[in-house]
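Good morning C.,

I know you're traveling, so I'll keep this short. The sequence:
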Amino acid sequence: MILCQCWDDGNVDDIRVCETLRRHGATASFNLNPGLHRDERYEGWKFKGVKPVWKLARGELVHTYRGFLVANHTVTHPHPKQLDDATLAREIRDGKAQLEAIFGYPVLGFAYPFGDHDDRVCAAVRDAGHVYARTCNNTEQVLPCADPMRLASCCHFLAADFWQRFERVRAADGVFYFWGHSYEILDEQGWADFDRQIARLSATPGARWVDLPELFA
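The tokens, ready to paste straight into the viewer:
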């Protein structure tokens, strides 16, 4: 059984997610918008109108994601289908190029902001040199994938039926792939639950964590 996960948007709570993953030997991809990181941390908005969502400072990125992969989430997180061709291409290509300049390795993955995609957007992502692109669709059969530019995950990490989906994928010896945003972990109980979730996944007999580009190698 293969385990994969990814996290969106480059928020300060990613630091604690990374610490948890390292503790349990888990891998992950982090989908970033390089144009939204500034010289200093800043509060972008409030999740559910209550929890402040802070963006990591640009200078924190390399250290925060040490040992993990980053993937492209466009430069500024627009709705891709609403962009004209030139702006769409620039958001995708510049996002990839800026992340490669920051991290020093090829950025092969992509996640559609808001899950927003169509044939035109998929083609632009493919043409920019990505090997996969994650949608917000769910499936219990991640592979085989008819179109890597329309990769679906199994579920969100807070899905009510997370473990039921996991057990079905495990029974089929498939790929269990989930995603989320670190700001969705609201309190210490949530962090404790997340720690137990990753620990249980990592302790699953016969399961191994895999970085997403490896699925398409």
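Safe travels,
E.
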